[in-house]
Amino acid sequence: MWKKLLLLALALGFGLAANMHLCCSLWVDGQALAGLYSPLDAGRARTAAGAAAEEIVAGPAQQPRVRQRYHLRLRPPSGTVPELSAALLDATPGVERSEGVYVSGVYLGSVQSREALFSSLRQFITGQLPTWAETGYLSQELVTRPQYGRAGSQTPVEDMVLLVSGMAPVLYSDGRGYVASA
């Protein structure tokens, strides 16, 4: 009887151990990251973020300090490599997150804030609104995408508004089908 109980306990222990996942909590420059990560994914993210940072700053980049604490748990890790890479790049000196600006797929540069760009564009369009027009809009599609770049390399918002309006002239409409450019 004792042998069967011992074998059952060993089988349960081995079954539990086989379903455990090694995870790690991470701190980047003293700031705890949400979620748990696979140690393998953490290594991949550090490698990817380091290579990206060196490409951005054009030379050896100072990596942020990363601390790991390991855990065993039944559920698999929830953190992803892109999340961790983004956190590492955000903490890398000389690298900043910005918004890349594209007009019909053509890259024009980057700005610090998407909201500031769109606010300035609205002011630009409504500031030149002819008396006969009800609305104004850009003649081509404007898209912004988050990106990382060298610190201080963003285009000032006022200059970006002029670049965008040069690539996508503003069209004005009277609401009844008449459209004209400024």
Keywords:
single chain; 182 residues; alpha+beta; 2 domains; 3-stranded antiparallel sheet; 5 helices; 9 strands; 29% strand
Write structural notes for this entry.
The protein has 182 residues and is α+β, with helices and mostly antiparallel strands. It folds into two domains: 13-93, no CATH class; 97-181, no CATH class. Helices cover 39% and strands 29% of the residues. It is built from five helices and nine strands; from the N terminus they run H-E-E-H-E-H-E-E-H-E-E-H-E-E. The strands form three sheets. It has a three-stranded antiparallel sheet with strand order 2-1-3, with no helix packed on it. Helix 4 packs across helix 5 (157-167). The longest helix has 19 residues, at 39-57. The model has no long low-confidence stretch (mean pLDDT 87).
What's this, in brief?
The chain has 182 residues and is α+β, with helices and mostly antiparallel strands. The protein contains five helices and nine strands; from the N terminus they run H-E-E-H-E-H-E-E-H-E-E-H-E-E.
